[in-house]
Amino acid sequence: MLQLAPHYNALMKTPLPQTTDGSVTLQPLLQLSAAELSRWLKDRGFQPWYAKAIRRWILFKRAESFESMSDLPKQLREQLTAAFQPLASEVTKSLLASDGTRKLLLKMWDGEDIECVMIPDHDRRTACISTQVGCGMACVFCASGLNGVMRNLAPGEILEQLVRLRNLLPAGERLSHIVVMGMGEPLANLDNLLAALEDATAKDGLGIGARHITISTVGLPIKIRKLAESGKQYSLAVSLHAPTEELRSKIVPTSDKMGLHNILQAADDYFKRTGRQVTFEYVVLRDINDRPLEANQLATLLKGRGAHINLIPFNEVEGLPYRRPTDERLNRFVEILREAGLFVHVRKRKGSDINAACGQLRRQSHIEKQAVT
Ligand code: SAH
To answer: What is the pLDDT of residues 233-243, one digit of tens each?
Structure first.
């Protein structure tokens, strides 16, 4: 039986790795912090500084087995192999879209599926990662939230998505950007996300610049402030989706607790504190929030903030009644915002032939499983 750090389970809020018969399986190595791994090594008579070397092998040198860590003593490699898995998830689907977007469905040790995506664009290699299994925010148009949230992902599980995606790149290529826009509400799992991003930004980790990392949130004001206080230079994107409280509570039913005014205030504070411009995301849904009325209301709401708005034409989700806006409506919407002096960007559609939008692949996979059983 493996000895786990006593606070392990409470800290991660995730189940211990168990097989279906209840026995504990090999522990995912990335689940241990460098300090915990040092302790494990020390307890077995190895130099604690090997912890850095082991993590570097996985995070930097793309090792997928302990055996391949050629500069570690053989005995250590054997003991590591008997106790840990270097990468604990299983890639159960890997889909390549015609535009080069690659989506992975990963099975975690408790059998839960999560999604992550690699989006190549010119010299950028952007990883889109998940922070939770499912999502508790219940945005009416989003596939991730259809069955609620199952659990938070541990720091190692968040990190592992980046490693898996990076390992698909040709040797010498690295991830340049991260968008935390996969399944889940990142700020509802902020501590674990911040822990994972420490390794993502570390020079001997994945070496990705903090300014190249965007965290997208439904808008939890208290957590936005906590993120600002972390002192990091992460970019923040706030999913607004509606210009009025009334419409927002229909599209984002958990919105009532947040309050548009509070969200905007927290976004302003984030800018003041970090100097980082906040982007507002707005999923454009036909006949729901895409009329000139909403464009004018949005312009009034955001005027004077020097705001950047990212319009996301809805990616249609099977079984949901929402539709993409017509080109004509979308163009008019953009025009009104630009005339009001706002910076508008319309998000390009990526990986549409592989269900690349939030939670779609996992949902598709569940539908297929249900059809089989
Ligand atoms: N919970 C975070 C991350 C969600 S994913 C948040 O709310 O910001 C990132 C963005 O994609 C969010 O703005 C989300 O609302 C949007 N999104 C989710 N499903 C979508 C779909 N089917 N089409 C277009 N945008 C979608």
So the answer is: 999 999 999 99
